[in-house]
């Protein structure tokens, strides 16, 4: 009977394999694994009743027998209204609008606008993310200040603004008739908020450059999830670039720099959280790809996923009493309020720039811009927050980005070649 409390108290030390600084871990209740299970329990309190309701309506054959004022809502949430459409080649991407009678100068201006918007949104988002999760607020000469600890509140802030922006966009512009059962968005939503939570929480244990490189290497689990979820097959160059990315990330993680302080040390907890982020995010992208077999626009997808994200996060925060606590922290520190709001604005604007860039120039150009953004994010973080990178680590970073550009080049060549394939010949399905 005395073992369980002892194990709970010792969990933080056991998981990281090292002594946890008091500034990071005030008690075992602040340990990330405990917080993860508490958050998951909050989500389960919404998911389980929802699952039982869906099964109930399906067993009752509600689509045939249901009537009344609630019928349209239940039909939309549980059954949907349209059959699936033919799956497009790029899945999650709407057909790109080809420029018609547009001058070169106009196209260059659009490209610069998209690149500047993406870089500004996500570079600012990255800097603010590291600031909020690794620095204190309200510090004075006599008071060290306090850190904001609840990553779930930041996820909620991001999702509520994205939900609002997507809802307004759908209301003001013409969208395809929606046909997917609404509950199917909940799977992508749940994995999305868990991946975002892991991303924020990981910054307590790893440096921001390490996190950026880990994101770059997520093509490997995405390929694995593609095989499991969508039964996809891949070309040899995709496996080659995945191996190069793995090698580059390993070189960076295994390199050591002299006099590394706690904020730049990669701990076991940080590695586990990064793995959680990559796994959840890989599932999200593959599930969304499957959902695009229904007729919908990317903004409708953004709206549907964020509806459930807001529901899950606000429900969990209210159950824990963390929503009021976070709002009180925001009231005590106006700087944090500004950072949290700007973080959400950058996230929502970034998503809109993503849709516009892909629509105007295609996925290849978008990937190049975002790859450059990752490189700039590492450089900016090192300059602002003083992270050190060794020669071996820098070489690893170079290998990763070389593999990413090689991947973009090979994919564009394959697409051009596939257009020349005679009718009747099949091509290998790509990510």
Structural features:
single chain; 431 residues; mainly alpha; 16 helices; 70% helix; globular; disordered N terminus; disordered C terminus; 3'-phosphoadenosine 5'-phosphosulfate transmembrane transporter activity; SCL35B1-4/HUT1; membrane
Protein described:
The chain has 431 residues and is mainly alpha-helical. The protein has one domain. The protein contains 16 helices and no strands. α2 (32-59) crosses α12 and α6 packs across α7 (185-202). The model is unreliable at 1-25, 85-101, 259-264 and 423-431 (pLDDT under 50).
Chart the SSEs and their pairings.
Layout: H1 3-16, H2 32-59, H3 62-65, H4 71-79, H5 104-134, H6 151-172, H7 185-202, H8 208-216, H9 219-229, H10 236-254, H11 268-291, H12 298-320, H13 322-332, H14 334-361, H15 363-385, H16 391-419
Estimate what percentage of residues fall within beta strands.
under 5%
Helix content: over 70%
- Estimate the mean pLDDT confidence: 80
Largest sheet: none
Radius of gyration: 23 Å
Stretches where pLDDT falls below 50 for ≥5 residues?
1-25, 85-101, 259-264, 423-431
Span between termini: 51 Å
Tally of alpha and pi helices: 16
Instruction: Specify the structural class.
Output: mainly alpha
Total number of β-strand segments? 0
* Domain tally: 1
Shape: globular
Written as H for each helix and E for each strand, in order along the chain, the element string is HHHHHHHHHHHHHHHH
Question: In brief, what are we looking at here?
Answer:
The protein contains 16 helices and no strands.
């Amino acid at each position: 009977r005395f073992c369980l409390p002892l194990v709970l108290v010792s969990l933080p030390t056991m998981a990281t394999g090292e002594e946890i600084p008091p500034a990071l871990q005030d008690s075992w209740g602040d340990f990330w694994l405990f917080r993860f299970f508490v958050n998951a329990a909050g989500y389960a309190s919404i998911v389980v009743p929802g699952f039982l309701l869906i099964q109930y309506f399906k067993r009752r054959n509600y689509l045939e027998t249901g009537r009344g004022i609630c019928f349209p809502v239940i039909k939309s949430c549980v059954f949907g209204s349209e059959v699936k459409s033919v799956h497009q080649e790029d899945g999650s991407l709407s057909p790109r609008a080809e420029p018609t009678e547009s001058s070169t100068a106009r196209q260059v201006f659009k490209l610069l606008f998209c690149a500047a918007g993406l870089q500004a949104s996500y570079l600012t988002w990255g800097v603010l993310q590291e600031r909020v999760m690794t620095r204190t607020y309200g510090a004075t000469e006599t008071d060290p200040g306090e850190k904001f600890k609840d990553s779930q509140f930041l996820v909620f802030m991001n999702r509520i603004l994205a939900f609002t922006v997507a809802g307004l966009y759908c209301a003001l512009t013409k969208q395809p008739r929606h046909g997917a059962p609404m509950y199917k968005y909940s799977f992508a939503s749940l994995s999305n908020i868990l991946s975002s939570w892991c991303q924020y929480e990981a910054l307590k244990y790893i440096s921001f450059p390490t996190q950026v490189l880990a994101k770059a290497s997520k093509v490997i689990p995405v390929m694995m999830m593609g095989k499991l979820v969508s039964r996809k097959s891949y070309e040899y160059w995709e496996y080659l670039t995945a191996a190069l990315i793995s090698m580059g990330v390993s070189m960076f993680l295994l390199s050591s720099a002299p006099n590394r302080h706690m904020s730049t040390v990669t701990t076991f907890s940080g590695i586990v959280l990064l793995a959680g982020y990559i796994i959840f995010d890989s599932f999200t992208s593959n599930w969304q790809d499957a959902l695009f077999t229904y007729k919908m626009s990317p903004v409708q997808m953004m709206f549907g996923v964020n509806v459930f994200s807001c529901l899950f996060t606000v429900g969990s925060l209210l159950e824990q009493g963390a929503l009021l606590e976070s709002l009180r922290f925001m009231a005590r520190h106006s700087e944090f309020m500004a950072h949290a709001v700007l973080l959400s604005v950058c996230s929502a604007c970034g998503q809109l720039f993503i849709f516009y860039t892909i629509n105007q120039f295609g996925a290849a150009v978008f990937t190049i811009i975002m790859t450059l953004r990752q490189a700039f994010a590492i450089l900016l973080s090192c300059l602002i927050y003083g992270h050190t990178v060794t020669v071996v680590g820098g070489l690893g970073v170079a290998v990763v980005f070389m593999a990413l550009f090689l991947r973009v080049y090979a994919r564009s060549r394959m697409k051009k070649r596939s257009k020349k394939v005679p009718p009747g010949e099949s091509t290998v399905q790509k990510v």
